[in-house]
Design a protein that fits this description.
This protein has six helices and four strands. With 228 residues, the chain is of the alpha+beta class. Helix 3 packs parallel to helix 4 and helix 4 runs antiparallel to helix 6. The chain is elongated. The termini are far apart.
Length: 228
């Protein structure tokens, strides 16, 4: 299976007011007067992302990261679309099971609250910070999304792990998958050749993805603990 170690921090959206609560207090008792609680903010955020409403998304993401986060989500969506089109073509015109060897859709499961399907669970508020627990596809353990209250509005906090190099990397990888699809459709890479030698398809996808993969930020290296 062709899988590259790509880690992505994805993020969120919309308006409302927020009040402060003691540590561990549920915002169900806090978000009065039409204000959005942290959990309600994420509901709006997820809905806005699905609707392609960048304006609403930007209003509900911490402003330090909002433009880059939205650009990353758009680039990842483009990559996943290119992956789906390639896999669909292979299933329909080459071999039914062969698409599994090059399918990159698992990356859609690494998008934090934008992984689908997501179920939002409990929330806790500590001053101007909040956490909302969620599960992806009912898989445990639960993860946590962080939010900050800025100017009376809860905003999704992408955290320090985001890297602005991600959008361009995913755009290059999407272009590589589209090139493989074009090669199959034009006959430069014939379906019969792929059926006879499935590894040739894997090699082509690997080759086309490589320029974008090289642009991905390297994960931080952990230093071994000093001996005492």
């Amino acid at each position: 299976m062709l899988r590259y170690p790509i880690s992505i921090m994805a993020l969120a959206l919309m308006l409302g007011g927020c009040a402060r609560a003691p540590t561990g207090t549920s915002s169900a008792a806090v978000a009065g007067g039409g204000a959005l609680s942290p959990r309600e903010t994420l509901v709006r955020l997820i809905a806005a992302r699905q609707a392609g409403d960048s304006h609403t998304m930007e209003a509900l993401i911490c402003p330090t990261h909002a433009p880059d986060v939205i650009a990353t989500l758009l680039a990842v969506d483009g990559f996943l679309t290119a992956n789906r089109q390639l896999c669909d073509y292979i299933r329909d015109h080459v071999a039914l099971g062969l698409s599994q060897s090059i399918d990159q859709s698992y990356l859609g499961e690494n998008l934090d609250i934008f992984s689908g399907p997501v179920e939002l669970l409990d929330e806790t508020i500590d001053g101007d910070q909040a956490r909302v627990a969620f599960v992806v596809d009912e898989r445990l353990p639960a993860k946590h999304a962080r939010l900050q209250c800025l100017d009376g509005v809860w905003r999704y906090d992408a955290g320090p792990g985001y890297d602005p190099a991600l959008p361009q990397a995913f755009e290059h990888m999407a272009r590589g998958l589209r090139q493989v699809l074009t090669d199959l459709q034009s006959g430069r890479l014939s379906p019969q050749q792929v059926r006879d030698d499935p590894q040739s398809l894997v090699d082509q996808v690997r080759l086309r993805l490589l320029p974008g993969v090289r642009m991905l930020p390297r994960p931080p290296q952990t230093q071994p603990a000093d001996d005492q």
